[in-house]
Specification:
- The complex is a heterodimer of chains A (about 170) and B (about 120).
- Chain A is about 30% helix and about 35% strand.
- Chain A contains three helices and six strands; from the N terminus they run H-E-E-H-H-E-E-E-E.
- Chain A has helices at about 1-15, 70-85, 90-110; strands at about 20-30, 35-40, 120-130, 135-140, 150-155, 160-170.
- Chain A has a three-stranded antiparallel sheet with strand order 3-6-5, covered by helices on one side. A two-stranded antiparallel sheet of chain A has the order 1-2.
- The longest helix of chain A is centred in the middle third of the chain and has 21 residues, at about 90-110.
- Chain B is an alpha+beta fold and about 120 residues long.
- Chain B has a three-stranded antiparallel sheet with strand order 1-4-3, covered by helices on one side.
- Chain B is globular, with a radius of gyration of 15 Å.
- Classes of the chains: A alpha+beta (about 170), B alpha+beta (about 120).
- Chains A and B meet through strand 1, strand 2, helix 3, strand 3 and strand 4 of A and helix 2, strand 1, strand 2, strand 3 and strand 4 of B.
- Strand 3 of chain A pairs antiparallel with strand 2 of chain B, so a sheet runs across the interface.
């Protein structure tokens, strides 16, 4: 009985189309002139010929079978930020690309953990150290028993990087 | 009880959200100069007010609101995001996008607010 139930949920997961998308926003200030840039890159992982409207069956599952492991995600963030940013110097084009790359890498590694039914949002900020002050804050409206987040910041002599991962349970 | 809009639309309206958030930001830090002691309180109000406006729409979404306030000093800032979700309900559907980013600046500071809406 339980096996049939498990099979149903496996099939359902495959039907949902997971499409990763990334967007990046950069504010550059070069010699008094402000240049804003916004780029949006979207890639389809699974190729669907026609868009299927899927009606989902009832799973009778009230909560996540496996909770989202916040310490594991924190380790991933520490690891990725340190490895990629340790030797880096702040440079406009490179940092813009680096922010997008970091997002992709963190998301790929979080997906590797294979935590079922969790949607992910990864946010990365990279900035130049120039004696300025800044504040990054976030607030979420969700179910605190199932949903969680992790964030980590890194600093070297010329730049700083802040990465946050939000994990939202899909009922 | 505040008025609660019982909208059954399960699509995130990014344009409406953008306008609401711009108004929130204007209201909180409109004509002010960057102040280290107040920035904490400012970002908390911006985020709270944005969230309240979003909730009032009554749509079946969980929200993540992220706000960055930075002093203008000639330094550069790059922000990127990457999301793993279901594009049909959370991502791009013609004009409706599952996330929106609002940029605002005045003489002394930048403010970037990102909102992500994840369907329940």
């Amino acid at each position: 009985m339980s096996e049939a139930h498990k099979d149903k949920s496996v099939r359902r997961d495959k039907k949902t189309s997971r499409v990763p998308s990334e967007g990046s926003h950069g504010v550059k200030n070069t010699a008094g002139k402000t240049k804003d840039s916004l780029s949006n890159v979207s890639c389809m992982e699974e190729h669907h010929d026609e868009r299927m409207v899927v009606t989902l069956e009832n799973t009778y599952q009230l909560g996540p079978r496996k909770r989202f492991p916040t310490p594991a995600i924190l380790e991933i963030l520490k690891d990725v930020l340190t490895n990629y940013l340790e030797e880096e110097e702040y440079e406009v084009e490179r940092s813009r690309q680096m922010a997008k790359t970091l997002c992709e890498v963190i998301r790929a590694r979080a997906k590797e953990l294979m935590i079922r039914r969790y949607k992910l949002v990864v946010l990365v900020h990279i900035g130049q150290l120039a004696g300025q002050s800044m504040q990054i804050s976030s607030r979420c409206l969700w179910d605190p028993s199932n949903d969680t987040f992790a964030s980590w910041s890194f600093k070297n002599t010329s730049l700083y990087g802040v990465a946050s991962v939000y994990a939202v349970y899909f009922e | 009880m505040e008025e609660f809009n019982n909208g059954d639309e399960a699509i995130f309206n990014a344009d409406e959200a953008t306008n609401n958030i711009k108004e929130c930001i204007e209201g909180v830090i409109g004509g002010m100069d960057y102040s280290q002691s107040k920035v904490n309180q400012w970002s908390a109000s911006i985020v709270e007010q944005s969230l309240t406006h979003l909730v009032k729409q009554g749509r079946p979404f969980k929200y993540i609101v992220n706000c960055t306030v930075m002093q203008k000093s000639g330094a550069g800032l790059h922000t990127a995001n990457s999301c793993y979700w279901d594009n049909a309900t959370d991502g791009e559907i013609i004009h409706h996008i599952g996330s929106c980013t609002v940029r605002w600046e005045n003489r002394t500071m930048y403010c970037v607010v990102s909102v992500f809406a994840v369907a329940m």
